[in-house]
Amino acid sequence: MEIRAGQVVVHCVEHGTGRPVLVLHGAGVDHREAEACFEPALDGVAGLRRVYPDLPGMGRTAAPATLRSADDVVDTLLRFADEVTAGAPDAEYLLVGHSAGAYFAQAMAARRPERVAGLALVCPLLPRVREVPDHRVVAGSGEIGDEVFRSYFVIQTPDMLERYRRHVEPAAALVDEAALERIGERWALTPGHERAYPGPTLVVAGRLDSTVGYAAAVDLVHHYPHASLAVVDDAGHALPHEQPELLRALLADWLIRVERSAAASRADGEPSTRTEPS
Q1: Count H helices, E strands: the chain?
Q2: Which long-range contacts link 106-111 to residues 24+ away (Cβ below 8 Å)?
Q3: Chain segment 109-120, per-residue pLDDT in tens
Q4: Is residue 256 part of a domain?
Q5: Which domain, by its residues, includes 130?
Q6: How many angstroms separate the CA atoms of 37 and 8, rounded?
Q7: In the prediction, which pLDDT does 273 show?
Q8: How far are the Cα atoms of 95, 186, 207, 243 from residue 181, in angstroms, in the given order?
Q9: Domain for residue 16, yes or no?
Q10: Are 98 and 212 in contact (CB under 8 A)?
């Protein structure tokens, strides 16, 4: 389906009914990777409407010339969220992001904390990436697949190669490289996006992530007042593929915390996103 968000027509797929969960994929792929990784963990959870958009310049979502920065993408995604919740304009939604999708999710939660019921960041791309480890294969020969597969996965088994070929590789032909380069030239977000989202937060990082590392993600536990943190061994940037059962358990715990926060807020007659005292 297509949803217009300002000047951008966003292609997305969705499953289920209830509170929206916007799941944002990383760079160079499309909704198919996010759907393959997160739908098994979210399917079966009652009352969740899982929405998987193609980000601008990827999949079937075009990036018009007016999109010239990461700020523009965030604005588009906020408009998209407004359209998804158009029937209930004050409704809350959950945000899940992988890699660059987590970069945008953080900014969205900072801009609209009262609308975000929970924030989950998986292998987040952050402004201050540091201490990125060298790539190291922990399973498999390291000789199968193409260069992109071998640099993305640290578990390089035939099963992982099949996942890559089904859910990652097909998106490459749909990437608008010129649009991503244009947006990447103005990748830094304007001041204000770094404000700490006060609601239930999950941060998951791969200890062997040679794309963004894990050290900067660890710092987020001090930034977000209600964050749980997991640094997962034997997982790289493709952690959602490589450690699906652990990811499912971490997301299940996060969803419990989201509901607990919502119940406490209903009892207090306040929005479910808690505000920390200054």
Answers
A1: 9, 8
A2: 106/193, 106/197, 107/70, 107/74, 107/189, 107/193, 108/74, 108/77, 108/78, 108/81, 109/197, 109/199, 110/192, 110/193, 110/194, 110/195, 110/196, 110/197, 111/74, 111/78, 111/192, 111/193
A3: 999 999 999 999
A4: yes
A5: 2-188+197-268
A6: 25
A7: 58
A8: 25, 9, 28, 31
A9: yes
A10: no
